[in-house]
């Protein structure tokens, strides 16, 4: 139970200690979630570099120990057990994906570690009712598609889609988002003409998308991760079927990977959800963007949401330390459960089970850029009410 002692922050937790603050995280650097996993890694690294340049957390330099889980729920458990019991890390940060966050959060809870997760906010995570878990996004991922449904239902009746089709990855993150949208659409009279849940090991979505396109839906809702999102678009391009509206829960919200994988001309008009965007005025966002571009290259438009979410995890640790003068797991858990906390994602607050209480923004690809378009309070452009043709 050495890890239990480490997790409690029994030594070196206050401002008097100058020992490194060792933070462990299991991240998908290979496997199905590697695109987003690498973005999470970049966010963690950038925060550590930034805080260390400022003297560390309570004078303690941050030392990251990041290990690859290969997108495997089995490996992620082994990784966190090793980080806690063998490496005796002071704190743990979360992985990518609900599929991995569920088992990882159980390990952290067993040893009394606070578990701040930048991804993995499916309903099964919160159903565990873990007091030490905090999902570092504005709302549960199940609700991330709500903003798309709200936008569609805000249109005049004559402009709304009449029919909808749903293609959903069998994944605890992806399918619930699409299902939540379907429930809202059907209640508003938008008829479901197709629905298919496909296995996570599906390599070729052409048969699914061919069957979907045959129903000629006005709107396509993809409950996607990354590779399946790219495959979905490429299949529709090959089929030459262009819906009036298209939404993807993940994949399309990657400003760097998405245009590279599907072709820049094939992105236009596709919607997704986001909690961070270039030009955001949230706490620390401008500095984050500048530092990201300086370290990793590209431009503000190529910063991945997952990097911003991971960076916000670190911001919360800093904020707790600044408020309490301590940085141990018990302090983090008790402190974050009260009040609202400013981050580059906006102000975050949580219910007792770690479920955040805010909302997402709707983003859309326009002119080769992923722009916030709804609600109007954050919009940088008006939504394209009808999706342009592929290649347009």
Walkthrough of the structure:
By secondary structure, the protein is α/β, with parallel strands linked by helices. It folds into 2 domains: 2-141 and 279-348, Rossmann fold, CATH 3.40.50.2300; 143-275 and 361-374, 3-Layer(aba) Sandwich (Rossmann fold), CATH 3.40.50.2300. The chain is built from 13 helices and 14 strands. The protein has helices spanning 2-7, 34-53, 73-85, 98-110, 123-126, 146-154, 174-187, 206-214, 227-239, 257-262, 285-296, 305-324, 329-336; strands spanning 21-27, 62-68, 91-93, 115-117, 133-135, 163-169, 191-198, 219-223, 245-248, 271-274, 341-343, 346-348, 361-366, 369-374. The strands form 4 sheets. A 5-stranded parallel sheet has the order 2-1-3-4-5, with helices on both faces. α2 crosses α11 and α2 (34-53) packs parallel to α12. It is globular.
